[in-house]
Amino acid sequence: MPKVFPELKSCPLVKRYENNPILSRHDIPYEATLIYNAGIAKYEGKYVMVFRDDVRTAYGELSLKGIHLGLATSDDGIHWDVRNKPFISQQEAETDEIERFYDPRLTVLDGELYMCFAIDTRHGLRGGMGKIHDLEKLEILSMTVPDNRNMVLFPEKIGGMYARLERPMPIYSRGKDRFDMWYSTSPDLEFWGRSKLVMGVEDVPYANDKIGPAAPPIKTEKGWLTTFHAVDIDNTRGKNGWEEKWPKRYTAGIALLDLEDPSKVIGMYKEPLLAPETDYEVDEGIRQNVIFPGGMILEDSGEVKIYYGAADTVECLATADVNDLLKLCLDK
User: Fold this and answer.
1) pLDDT digits (tens, 9 = 90+) for 241-254
2) Which of 95, 87, 86 is nearest to 122 (CA)?
3) Please, how many CA atoms are within 13 Å of residue 186, restricted to the half-sphere of its CB?
């Protein structure tokens, strides 16, 4: 039996935006049901968001009609102007092999906007990486073999190589979904390898099921500040949303990775950075008790904006001071 964690609390140094959520289905000018797990970056003077939109037959229904990726821009990172049509619709994504794109993560590298994403295919779940041109078109650069997802690209080369964090899914070898966080490098964004384990489930005191990357890392003088998702399972939780049973809880953690070798963890906060607590995280939506960061921006003021999906239903914002986050990771 996995260890059960009856109550988890968010770090008091992190403040949720008082008017959360910052984006929901009510803000979308086309068919939309669940708006969450967005990637966010500052690009050419604007905040850019690519969000996941699961289209259901009706709100409260499990039947999935399709998944779109939508695009929005903002001047302040809080109020968003949503494009009047999807960036990538379900119909545009579908091919003889590809079924849908989802869970985007955005990184600006050398002045270009890149997106990592998950791809459901007829032969397994793959991780994809591509370049966004003029906020209009996605050029796919590489796709993993099944099964891999939650990939995030570092915003600069490290040791002359492109770098990413990722979460492979070795279900067959272990017989259950116990997933960890890995680090891989590439000379050209197409061929990836030299993979190293960064953190395992056993390294996170409040996880008993799986961990993996969340928002792309941000660079500080002390190291790469990195959020991750951590999952614990308690089979007594019951329904917790629209499904018959949802026993999982997703929390957000924070760690600091070495600047020159990000496979090395310098420090990690031993408690959740964000745990589900508010109504829109624990009482509403398709899957309650879910927090999943997908974007993190370090402002010139030292404020860190942390964007996260809540209950797999809405997109939210929390903020913290970068020095507070570093102290959390480095205090033993």
Assistant:
1) 999 999 999 999 99
2) 95
3) 17
Arithmetic mean of pLDDT, 156-170? 96
What is the spatial distance between Cα 54 and Cα 148, in angstroms, rounded to a whole number? 20
Tell me which DSSP letter residue 241 carries: B
The DSSP string of 80-93 is: -EE-SS-SB-HHHH
2-16 core/surface letters (b: 16 or more CB in 10 A; e: else)? eeebeebebbeebeb
With a CB cutoff of 8 Å and minimum separation 6, the contacts of 106 are: 39, 40, 41, 43, 48, 49, 50, 113, 114, 115, 132, 216, 295
Q: How many CA atoms lie within 13 A of 74 on its CB side?
A: 16
- d(Cα 109, Cα 115) in Å, to the nearest integer? 11
User: Which residue from 294, 227, 225, 297 is spatially nearest to 41, judged by alpha carbons?
Assistant: 297
Distance of CA 250 to the CA centre of its chain: 11
In 215-325, DSSP assigns E strands to 218-220, 223-233, 248-257, 265-268, 291-298, 303-310, 314-321
Pairing relationship of beta strands 181-186 and 162-168 according to DSSP bridges: antiparallel
Contact 131, 141 (CB under 8 A): yes
Provide the pLDDT for residue 4.
75
pTM > 0.70: yes
pLDDT mean over 177-199: 96
Report the distance separating Cα 158 and Cα 166, nearest Å. 16
Give me the pLDDT at residue 193, please: 97
Three-point CA angle 97, 53, 11, nearest 5°: 120
What is the pLDDT averaged over residues 209-230? 98
Neighbours of 155 (CB within 10 A): 17
Q: How far apart are CA 56 and CA 219, in angstroms?
A: 38
Tens-digit pLDDT profile for residues 273-322: 999 999 999 999 999 999 999 999 999 999 999 999 999 999 999 999 99
DSSP 130-171: EEEETTTEEEEEEEPPSSEEEEEE-SS-BTTBEEEEEEE--H
